[in-house]
Amino acid sequence: MTPRYPKQQLWFPCGRYFLRTIKREDASDRWGEWLSDPWMVHVLNVAPRTLSKNEIADYIRSFDQRERLLLGIFERGTRAHVGFYRFDIDHERREALINAIIGESSHRNSGATVLTGIPVIQHLFTALKLERINASVLERNTMTMDYMLKLGWQRDDGPATTMPSQTDGTALTCRHLVWTADAFRAFMATPLGQRLRRQIESDGKR
């Protein structure tokens, strides 16, 4: 009999931001515009389109918050919704696939993903007893790749994959990264990891 895992209703304070489980009422026209952003099209290799509020609501409903988690990134104070995390969890293999999007351009390169990512990944490793988090990054997205390697992510030993560009059909290379529970704990003990922990635990004032 397949075990039924409890729903994850999560909320994490993250310095300037907070992270929580997405609700249906979070669907918005603004969110629906994110995939029409040229930057988003480039780094995610998606066809540019604008989603309706109803389409966003349907997307939210597709997550059971058990094995498929959808968490929103919000700015403290304004409570503006700036992005989200998606986790596809395989409890049997004790691993998860992570995807992150910062939809609001003013919050890119602001630390939003690292400040919000560390608490939830720690939760997955400690509370859910996962052993590794997997991620895939387009080779052309060098900024994200460099930032993840700096945080302690490691290149997966498996081969890279290719996919056609959604804009011109050319072949794009996708690299795979992994963050094990041991590597995560080792990173958090470094000076950079400790500094990030202090930022996460701050009151968000700048």
N to C succession of SSEs = EEHHHEEEHEHEEEHH
| CATH architecture descriptor | 3-Layer(aba) Sandwich
What is the CATH homology-level superfamily? Gcn5-related N-acetyltransferase (GNAT)
Number of domains: 1
CATH topology: Aminopeptidase
On the 0 to 100 scale, the average pLDDT is 92
* Dominant shape: globular
Q: How many individual helices?
A: 7
Strand-pairing-aware structural class: alpha+beta
Tell me, what is the CATH class? Alpha Beta
Secondary structure: number of strands? 9
Q: End-to-end span in angstroms?
A: 51 Å
For the report, how would you describe the main beta sheet? 9 strands, mixed
Question: What percent of the residues sit in helical stretches (DSSP H or I)?
Answer: 25-40%
Question: Overview of this structure, please?
Answer:
By secondary structure, the protein is α+β, with helices and mostly antiparallel strands. The protein has a single domain (11-201), classed as 3-Layer(aba) Sandwich (Aminopeptidase), CATH 3.40.630.30. 31% of the residues lie in helices and 28% in strands. The chain has helices at 29-32, 38-44, 53-61, 112-126, 142-150, 181-188, 191-201; strands spanning 11-14, 17-21, 68-75, 81-90, 95-102, 132-138, 154-155, 161-164, 171-180. Strands 1, 2, 3, 4, 5, 6, 7, 8 and 9 form a nine-stranded mixed β-sheet that branches. The mean pLDDT is 92.
